Amino acid sequence: MIRFDAAELTGTEPYKLLTGLVVPRPIGWIGTVSLAGVPNLAPYSFFNAVSGRPPMLVFSPGRGSRKDTLANVRTMPEFTVNVVTAEVAEAMNITAAPLPPGESEFDYAGLTEMPSTFIRPPRVAECRAAMECVVTDIVEIGDPVEGNALVIGEVVVFHVAEELLDGTRIDQSQLAAVGRHAGNWYSNATDLFELIRPT
Is 24 exposed, middle or buried (0-12, 13-18, 19+ CB in 10 A)? Predict the structure, then answer.
């Protein structure tokens, strides 16, 4: 087994090791709006759920990122999380392209803006599940220049297609979410197996 001391790694080496080992990662397809009213849409695999009551999520954009997401949530502290499934994976990948500020990834990827219920950023109409969130905190983490911001949001509304639901349980085989791996690799959550938790 080869050992890597994190303090001795340079450039993108720690990122490559981390994103190659922490897999598969859920993808937060984050919708925001600029102060000028331009919608933005970008995928983040540094994303997860962190609380059930109240329901809360985090995603972590880079502070030196080419994406507009962090600037948008700083000035308009709301965002949507659109669940990435096989039907929208290609479009999600397109929205990772660095567009000039003021251009909408919805238009660029040919996606439909769906108005949210309580917040200003739109949802992706083509997604079968989405969440509306309000920002509760933004925490600076890591290197002052190349580090990240941890955006913490509370879910205020869930939108879920009826065919995915059994009460409030989500049918995982029907959802078939897409996970992020390293480089250009993704996976479909379709090869499922069940383990009964010990009591």
Answer: middle
- Cβ of 119: how many Cβ atoms within 10 Å? 21
* CATH architecture, domain 27-181: Roll (2.30)
If you average pLDDT over residues 54-70, what whole number do you get? 88
CA–CA separation, 120 and 133 (whole Å): 10
pLDDT tens digits, 150-190: 999 999 999 999 999 999 999 999 999 999 999 999 999 99
**Three-class SS of residue 143?**
coil
Domain ranges of the chain: 27-181
CA distance 25 to 62: 17
CA–CA–CA angle 8, 14, 15 (5° rounding): 160
Q: What is the pLDDT of residues 17-50, one digit of tens each?
A: 999 999 999 999 999 999 999 999 999 999 999 9
- Listed in sequence order, the residues at least 6 apart from 168 whose beta carbon sits closer than 8 Å to its beta carbon are none
Instruction: Give the distance from CA 93 to its chain's centroid.
Output: 12
Cα–Cα distance for residue pair 118/124, rounded to 1 Å: 15
- Alpha carbon distances (Å) from 138 to 45, 78, 116: 17, 12, 22
Per-residue tokens: 88: 């929208």
Could you give the CA distance from residue 171 to residue 132 in angstroms, rounded to a whole number? 21
